[in-house]
Structures are given as structure tokens and as C-alpha cells.
Design goal:
5% of the residues lie in helices and 30% in strands. The chain has one helix and eleven strands, in the order H-E-E-E-E-E-E-E-E-E-E-E. The protein has a seven-stranded antiparallel β-sheet.
């Protein structure tokens, strides 16, 4: 899922136009996109907020440019621990958030029934990566969206992602509400697909700015 920021009016228009549309994205070795439509879909509401106050672990390689406390590329966290990261997109340059993966929940293949994914979904098991975003900076982040969260398989390789444009009730990727100021928290979700029931999604990774701009391309992870 891409990390974007847009005004509420624009976000609403896009949601109405393509609600229920899905894109299946492949791994690094062979990315692919497969548009799909559910048999039926209805927009959902805004997720409730939750506080992400745990402290990050230490370790990893040299820290990216920014304030002290910024998570280092390659740094690993436990599920429930918060990672401080800069948010330098669009109108929100200079913002800072605490990103916390709170749970990785296994779904069932039946969750994907009714979606026109074709053979690409055969045998796949969805996992729901639930995370919180807390504004720890001084910028109003109204309508910003923090994505670039993906699943990791047990061997550390990237899991296939299922990007949803619109609403998927079991896993909603939420933008920030109006007036998202310092101290406020929003919940969100990313979908990862395990290739079979025998292989699990065991971790999650954030690979947005500044980590995706670095030569070693290491994000930060949770297990």
C-alpha cells in the first residue's frame, strides 16, 4: 500500500469511484498487479483510536538524518513497541509519528471469497497487520495516510500484499481524521498473503521514507 496524503474531499471522491477495487502486488522478484472487484461491498466507518506508548528497542545500523530517537534502518521491534519515524510527504514534511504494529492476525481463505482475484488467490491465506499511528510532532496531519507496511514470512522474505482501494471490512487502511494534532492516535491495517496454509506471515516491515531512499533499502520490522 502506498503512502499518500490528500484532502478529505479528494479521498471521499476516490472512495466512491472505486470502492471495493483490489490490487494484488507481487514480491520484489516479480511485481504484478491484478485488479479485482468483490461481488458486493459496502463502505465502512472510521476505526477507533488506540494509544501506542511503548518504547522502541535499540540496535541496528546508523540512524537516518533527523531528530534523536528516530528508528534506525534495519532496526527490529517487538509487536507492541513503538518506532519513532519522520513523515516527510506532501504537505506534511517535517512531521513525526510513532508507528506501532499491534497485532498480526491470521484470516482464512474464505475471507477472499467473492473477490475476483482468479487463480492468483488460490491457496493464499490472508493475514491482517494491525498498527497504530500517533502524531508526536507539531504538524497537524489531518487526512494524512501512513502506508508502506507489509508482511514478512518466517524466513524474512516479503509476503505478497493485497492493496485495497475503498473498504475491506476485515482490514481497513485508515487516513488520519481532521484535526489530527500532537498526541492523537489512529488505527490502520495492511493485508499480507501467505503462499499456503503451511507458511505463516510472522512479521511486518515499514519501508516508507526515509528508509526506501537509502542504498541498503532496509526498513524497520516487528516480530
Amino acid at each position: 500500500m502506498s503512502t499518500t496524503s490528500m484532502r478529505n474531499t479528494t479521498l471521499g471522491a476516490v472512495g466512491l469511484a472505486v470502492v471495493g477495487s483490489l490490487v494484488l502486488t507481487g514480491c520484489k522478484s516479480g511485481d504484478e498487479e491484478l485488479p479485482a472487484q468483490p461481488a458486493a461491498s459496502s463502505p465502512g466507518g472510521t476505526s477507533p483510536t488506540a494509544d501506542a506508548s511503548a518504547s522502541p528497542s535499540t540496535g541496528g545500523s546508523a540512524a537516518p538524518a533527523g531528530a534523536p530517537g528516530t528508528a534506525k534502518p534495519g532496526q527490529a521491534f517487538k509487536i507492541g513497541e513503538a518506532a519513532e519515524i519522520p513523515y516527510d510527504y506532501g504537505d506534511f514534511k517535517g512531521s513525526r509519528v510513532a508507528l506501532t504494529v499491534t497485532a498480526i492476525e491470521q484470516g482464512t481463505p474464505a475471507d477472499l471469497e467473492g473477490l475476483k482475484l482468479g487463480d492468483k488467490a488460490n491457496g493464499k491465506v490472508p493475514y491482517y497487520i494491525r498498527y497504530t499511528v500517533k502524531n508526536i510532532g507539531t504538524t497537524d496531519m489531518s487526512y494524512a495516510s501512513v502506508g508502506h507496511v507489509r508482511g514478512l514470512l518466517g524466513d524474512g522474505t516479503e509476503a505478497q500484499s493485497l492493496a485495497v482501494i475503498g473498504k475491506f471490512e476485515k482490514c481497513k487502511e485508515e487516513s488520519m481524521p481532521k484535526g489530527f494534532a500532537n498526541g492523537q492516535t489512529q488505527t490502520s491495517c495492511a493485508i499480507a498473503l501467505a503462499p499456503s496454509a503451511q507458511v505463516k506471515v510472522a512479521g511486518a516491515e515499514y519501508w516508507g521514507n526515509p528508509y526506501n531512499a537509502m542504498s541498503n533499502s532496509k526498513g524497520i520490522s516487528w516480530k
